[in-house]
Amino acid sequence: MAETKPTATAPAAKSSTSVQPKKRGNSISWVAPVLCIVAGYVIWRFVLGNPSNFAKPDLAGGFWPHHQGPKSGIVKMYEGGIIVPLLIACLLTVITFVIERLLTITKATGKGNIAEFIRKVQYHLANKNVDQAIAECDKQQGSVGNVMKAGLRKYKEMISVTELDTEQKVLAIQKEVEEATALELPMLEKNLVFLSTIASVATLIGLLGTVIGMITSFSALGAEGGGGAAAELSRGISEALYNTALGIGTSALAIIMYNIFTTKIDAITYGIDESGFTLTQSFASLYK
User: Fold this and answer.
1) What are the C-alpha distances in Å from 245 to residues 135, 195, 241, 248?
2) Closest among 123, 116, 148 to 134, alpha carbons compared
3) What is the largest CA-CA distance in the chain?
4) How does DSSP classify residue 142?
């Protein structure tokens, strides 16, 4: 008997996905921190540490001039030590990724209210007007709209498929939604790790700067003694506490923005889940 070669069945061909991965670079994740560290040192050394800001500038100080007699309050931050540039870099990094996440999540949220968008899609599906539902997704222009559009394309395809039963068609739609979701969610959560990390580390870096400053001040007190040393100790402690203030402020900003972004992401994720449920339930009830 002649051998017959197995051929692909029609249902297998129908189960292919139309969702394609999106190529998104993330060079900002390593470029931004490096640039922020450089910018932090430049601000500390050449802006705060400008010789004109001090009564007794150290013009031959090189990398770390030991200027004395700051003329204004904020310039005293310079005397907080070499930890200050790291704290400024942390603050700049937080600001950079806050702006980046704000732009990304705002774009992912799309236009209009998500709940209202889902209600419009439900209305069009109830009237079996899939093309109009897809048009609503194009208007929404967000992550929920992208996932819903991918599911609707499979929804429309399954209407004309005769080889599968209703349950298999619903599973095919659900799989398409899950694959589209898997492409959208990483984009929303990307780079949030920088905010969560700095939220924990900035305070510790600030405390490290404070401890180093106090060690230096107490060493001077022990070496010199007398009333002048006590005054120098008070000044040194005051300068060291700038590290703590900058670290706590940076950490607070990172925590607040991280919580804001995670709340917005949760809202988008809920909309995506609701859109998938809408598609499967609609198809199961209308195309039995």
Assistant:
1) 52, 18, 6, 5
2) 148
3) 110
4) S
Best CA proximity match to 147, nearest among 179, 171, 112: 179
Residue 121 has which token pair?
A: 């899609």
Measuring CA to CA, which residue among 30, 41, 43 is closest to residue 191? 30
Minimal CA–CA distance to 132: which of 115, 100, 111, 155?
Answer: 155
Q: Of 69, 278, 106, 281, whose CA–CA distance to 188 is shortest?
A: 106
For residue 173, give both structure tokens: 């739609």
The strand pairing partners of 68, in sequence order, are 56
- Please provide the distance, in angstroms rounded to a whole number, between the alpha carbons at the two ends of the chain: 42
Render pLDDT for 120-129 as a digit per residue (tens, 0 to 9): 999 999 999 9
Lookup: tokens for 102: 């704000």
Answer for the pair 67, 56: CB distance below 8 angstroms, yes or no. yes
CA 277, CA 151: separation in Å to the nearest integer?
10
Per-residue pLDDT tens over the stretch 159-182: 988 888 889 999 999 999 999 999
